[in-house]
């Protein structure tokens, strides 16, 4: 079995993105692509934060997709840290527990454009830890004009939250996270897709090694770039941290869905397995069993 840890969907075609003809894939478009690529299930992440979408999506919409296709999808809920009157005392556990009881296995993708140590965000982390839900987040390099939780180069604010929430499982995602796979990342390129050989001292490596609750969400171009930019490093990294990595796609448009399997991360993993650069054990953990374990499937 292969599980995609990170994807988005809408039950029907809705308003396209501004100045664009793209929109999230429908469930049946995803299933068609997954059948092509050999993927069995996928985690659906609702987009409820206003910063990163032109249309707010409800948790109920994602739960509805899961109810229609229970053998193919796994639902997450998403709670904005500003909900319930924008106070750090908001009882977000009430909503999290409600959705957990409905079948949601985690929270995310959290894209609120607030600092990691904003009291509202800390409150979100407090309640996620309390309710035992995995949390998927997007990292941003700044406030304004972008989306995601904001940190500084080197991810010091995120590490502080790891230490404050030792029982919270984190699924780490985005360019600003995966650029830190290399020790030479800098202020100019940490929000992009750096190329070339990976150097020692990458914060991703340090944080995953240091904290067993930190997992790498390998989805999107950012995850694939981190692994494929230096293939020798990439296969070493996959093998070394096979217990804390999860395969994903982050398909956001049906137009590009098939490319994720014809020329992306899954092909890289399969090629590594075929060429004995990646063990069967590591392949199975990254593509399936790690997700099964942390999501209690």
State the share of residues found in helices, binned by percent. Answer: 25-40%
Strand fraction? 5-15%
In CATH's first tier, which class applies?
Alpha Beta
User: How many helix segments?
Assistant: 13
Q: What Rg is obtained from the alpha carbons, in whole angstroms?
A: 18 Å
CATH topology: TIM Barrel
The run of helices and strands is EHEHEHHEHEEHEHHEHHEHHH
Q: In oligomeric terms, what are we looking at?
A: single chain
Shape: globular
CATH architecture: Alpha-Beta Barrel
> Mind telling me the CATH superfamily name?
Metal-dependent hydrolases
How would you characterize the largest beta sheet?
A: 6 strands, parallel
Q: How many beta strands in the DSSP annotation?
A: 9
Count up the domains. 1
First and last CA, distance = 12 Å
Brief rundown of the structure:
The protein is of the alpha/beta class and 297 residues long.
Topology readout:
Elements: E1 3-7, H1 27-37, E2 41-44, H2 59-68, E3 73-75, H3 83-86, H4 92-102, E4 106-110, H5 119-131, E5 134-140, E6 149-150, H6 156-164, E7 170-173, H7 175-178, H8 203-210, E8 214-217, H9 220-228, H10 231-240, E9 245-246, H11 259-262, H12 265-274, H13 280-294
Parallel strand pairs: 1-2, 2-3, 4-5, 5-6, 5-7, 7-8, 8-9
Helix pairs in contact: 4-5
């Amino acid at each position: 079995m292969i599980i995609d840890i990170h994807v988005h969907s809408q039950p029907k075609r809705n308003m396209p993105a501004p100045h664009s003809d793209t929109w999230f894939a429908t469930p049946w478009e995803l299933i068609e692509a997954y059948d092509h690529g050999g993927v069995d299930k996928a985690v659906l992440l609702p987009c409820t934060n206003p910063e990163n979408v032109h249309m707010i999506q409800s948790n109920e919409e994602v739960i509805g997709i899961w109810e229609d296709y229970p053998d193919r999808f796994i639902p997450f809920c998403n709670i904005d840290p500003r909900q319930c009157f924008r106070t750090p005392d908001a009882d977000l556990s009430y909503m999290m527990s409600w959705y957990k009881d409905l079948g949601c296995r985690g929270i995310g993708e959290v894209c609120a454009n607030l600092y990691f140590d904003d009291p509202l965000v800390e409150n979100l982390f407090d309640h996620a830890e309390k309710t035992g839900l995995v949390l998927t987040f997007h990292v941003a390099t700044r406030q304004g004009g972008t989306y995601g939780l904001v940190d500084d180069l080197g991810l010091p604010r995120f590490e502080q939250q790891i230490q404050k929430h030792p029982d919270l499982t984190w699924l780490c995602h985005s360019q600003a996270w995966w650029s830190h796979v290399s020790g030479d990342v800098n202020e100019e390129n940490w929000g992009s897709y750096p190329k070339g050989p990976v150097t020692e001292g990458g914060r991703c490596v340090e944080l995953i090694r240091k904290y067993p609750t930190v997992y790498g969400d390998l989805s999107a171009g950012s995850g694939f770039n981190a692994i494929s930019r230096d293939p020798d490093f990439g296969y070493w990294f996959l093998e070394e941290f096979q217990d804390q990595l999860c395969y994903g796609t982050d398909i956001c448009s049906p137009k590009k869905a098939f490319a994720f399997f014809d020329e992306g991360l899954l092909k890289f993993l399969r090629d590594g397995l075929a060429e004995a650069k990646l063990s069967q054990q590591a392949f199975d953990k990254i593509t399936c069993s790690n997700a099964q374990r942390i999501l209690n499937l």
